[in-house]
Amino acid sequence: MDWIAEGRRRAQTRLQSIADSAPSLSVPIHDSADYARGWKFLGEFYSCIPDCAYPWNPSIVHAIREFCPDVMPISIRTAWQSSRLDGEPRTMVLVRHGIARYVRDPICPVHHFDCAMPSTPVPGGVRLRKPNYIELNWYDREVRPYGYDLPGAYLPFDWELYTSLRTAYVDNLNPEELVEKLIAPAERKKSVAAAQSADEHAYVDRDIQSYISKKLETLSDSEQKEVVMNSPPPQIPVP
After folding, report:
1. In the chain, which ranges are E strands?
2. What is the pLDDT of residue 202?
3. What is the pTM of this model?
4. Could you tell me which residues come within 8 angstroms of residue 70 by beta carbon, excluding any fewer than 6 positions away?
5. Which CA distances in Å does 124 have to 60, 61, 173, 236?
6. Which residues pair with 81 in a beta bridge?
């Protein structure tokens, strides 16, 4: 058993010598979040309340809703903090437009985020509902004045946004889906209106016929004959 104890002692001595010869490591202070290079993300805030400094055009919203009816215009504010390596930290807030959606029956996971909503009707007849899905974060992908770890330059809510959305929407749909999204709803709306009109006319016709039948029942045979003889001839439509 002495040779087992001797082997353990030699192994421990060898491990201790390796540990003593290993270089010591220390984490420099600039590896912390406040001293890391770049910008520290503080938070992101969403709002559907119209902002006079960053306005969105109601006409463009209505145009986008022609092919995506559940679109909601939002403003996105992101707060960042500079690194202490550059001196005393400062906070910067970047504002940009976005496109969100109110998905009623989602087939994929929705986004969970708080969004401030207006308490009164907004101008332009745009009806808003609290969104549950962010479709687009609208900013310049090429021009990045604050570096590539931050969003790019501000872009206005203009017809370029409409064109980009429309192009992406059309490119992501096959012909059958395009028909279902763009043409089928209008056709269904027409068919529903035609069915409602037909039902209305049928109801009126039934009501008139019922009234005439009840009225004739109260007349004598001679009075019925007089009504029939004095009735104007039916109008025959000219083809």
Report:
1. 39-47, 71-82, 91-101, 115-116, 133-138
2. 74
3. 0.57
4. 101, 102, 103, 104
5. 10, 9, 30, 49
6. 40, 91
